[in-house]
Design a protein that fits this description.
Aminopeptidase, globular
Length: about 150
């Protein structure tokens, strides 16, 4: 069973997340944002082992999944799906008009994950963080019931 909880970051917790994210070479540039209260981080665990997380932030009326990561040993399971569903439910409850996430054009598994939860690709950009060989795809789920509501 996957458990997901909000994570309040401290120096120790950043080290802990860095440890579970051992296969992500750009983690250092993201760790700066984890210290910012503007971002919310949700961590997924299975049997007390932290196996993935999603970083969420608000931009205007949209909820962004700024970063989604799942341990290689737990991919193709339910962890990524549950983290994304948590984000969409949060978006519904808090009045966001859409949930937006992105992934690299070379990451076919993540693209399929977004499509499996009902997201559609709506943007394609040059990946400024890579070596220029890949693009960044943006995926979105419109939260219909919130389109005409004002934010709280």
């Amino acid at each position: 069973m996957v458990k997901i909880a909000i994570y309040c970051f401290s120096e120790e917790s950043i080290s802990e997340i860095k440890h579970i994210c051992r296969d992500f070479k750009h983690f250092e540039c993201y760790s700066i944002y984890f210290k910012d209260p503007y971002y919310q981080v949700y961590v997924a665990s299975i049997k007390e082992k932290k196996v993935g997380f999603i970083v969420l932030s608000r931009h205007s009326y949209n909820l962004y999944g700024d970063f989604l990561w799942v341990d290689e040993d737990y991919r193709n399971g339910k962890v990524g799906t549950e983290l994304l569903q948590l984000a969409i439910e949060k978006g519904k409850k808090e009045g966001y008009r859409s949930f937006i996430g992105d992934t690299l054009s070379t990451n076919k598994k993540a693209q399929k994950l977004y499509e499996r939860i009902g997201a559609t690709k709506f943007g394609e950009f040059i990946n400024f963080y890579g070596e220029g060989k890949e693009k960044l795809y943006q995926y979105r789920i419109i939260i219909e019931e919130n389109l005409n509501k004002n934010m709280k």
